[in-house]
């Protein structure tokens, strides 16, 4: 078993997020047991009778062969076609209640850090402020309810935390359970 996993610019620690894990399992794409398997989302109209190794994600062969995407392109506005392609077709998705999507900062896709609760989110005040602003725009007008929702994150609803690959700013969206 090798820990020499491919590097994913937009999902730098897929072991920590649980999207990849050690497994003795044959990849449905390359038909090899590489010691690691992908556990999260893949959207395709085809029947996929198994799971992928990280190498078939990284080189795009899984997305090509099964005509699918790991992540919905929803939210990836203002990024180049190459970035869109890399995030949706060559980057592991992640586990979420709702369909996972990516956030954008500095005209680039941000890197997915992981699913967090309020304490981890509060450690990045800029992400907490941005999420609060987004929720107000989404129609949360009762400030007491809004703060209760934010401070309860991690118990039911969670936040998906990202970090801008250009400026390092953290950003997040809420994933209602
Ligand atoms: Zn493979
Ligand atoms: Zn940025």
From TrEMBL:
InterPro entries: UPF0167. It holds the Pfam family UPF0167. Belongs to the UPF0167 family. This is CbrC family protein. It comes from Streptomyces katrae. The lineage of its organism: Bacteria, Bacillati, Actinomycetota, Actinomycetes, Kitasatosporales.
